[in-house]
Amino acid sequence: MQLIVVTGLSGSGKSIALRQLEDLGYYCIDNLPGNYLVPVAEHLHSVGRDLLAVSLDSRSDASIPEISKSFKTLKEHNVDIRVLCLTASTDALVQRYSETRRQHPLSQRSASGPETLVEAIEKERKMLEPFVGFSHIIDTTGMLPNTLNHWIRNFVRAKKGRILLTFESFGFKRGLPMASDLVFDVRCLPNPYWEEDLRKYTGKDQPVIDYLRSKPEVQEMISDIQNFVEKWLPSYEAQNRHYLTVSIGCTGGQHRSVYIAETLARHFSKLYEGVIVRHRTLDAVASKD
């Protein structure tokens, strides 16, 4: 049986994630109380439903010790558990709430009276901090629903290994992804953007690949990042980390970072079963088309 637990900040896209998982064949339950996780999973397994996705967040009144105990019980029954945590910047969440005119769940439950939206968001962010250590995190700031759906499909289809290793390209001019565990700045490398014939291409296109492959400093940067990740990945695994996101940033997120993320993903996919590559800028553009 496979169980995907969706958690994260209210307004970060959990409903979109559950709808996508439902389209992929999962039996989805939103806002499940934590103490019902084991009996629900056992019942669905008994009737032949072996794909389950549940939302556990600040509305669920589920404590970390309670959830950890449930996870331990389910793993003893060979349940493949994956935890997906969605986050976003406070400014992005405030904008989303202003557009929908909905009230934040913690504002509704505040015993001391109504909290401001920003206070409720920061309070929830603090409540969910314990999830971060054992979750695959997706930062949905500035992200279109189609991009989030694409990234969730990649997450679901990735093979389960000792650790799920993600290489994500991004552009610094659009901001640093909040979900980054390791960040490498490659803006010091030759930029294909300034080559007029290459500007329209991306780091996945052969003309740009050939250009960057011909630059010794680009290959040296890739080798340095590769060696760093290979050296320290066992230490992350020793700390019982199941997910690690390595972010590669250039100026616009179109050429250098894309090429390097793709190259690193190909290399590490030969060493690890679970490797994902995704492109924050390119995937956003593709979602608009």
From TrEMBL:
Binding-site positions, ATP: G8, L9, S10, G11, S12, G13, K14, S15
RapZ C-terminal domain span? 165-282
- Asked whether the keyword Transit peptide is assigned, the reply is no
**Keywords attached to this entry:** ATP-binding, GTP-binding, Nucleotide-binding
Q: Which PANTHER family match?
A: RNASE ADAPTER PROTEIN RAPZ
RapZ-like N-terminal domain spans which residues? 1-159
- Which residues, by range, are in coiled-coil regions? none
| Residues where GTP binds | D57, S58, R59, S60
Q: Which InterPro entries match?
A: P-loop_NTPase, RapZ-like, RapZ-like_N, RapZ_C
The GO molecular function terms of this record are:
ATP binding; GTP binding
Protein's UniProt name: Uncharacterized protein
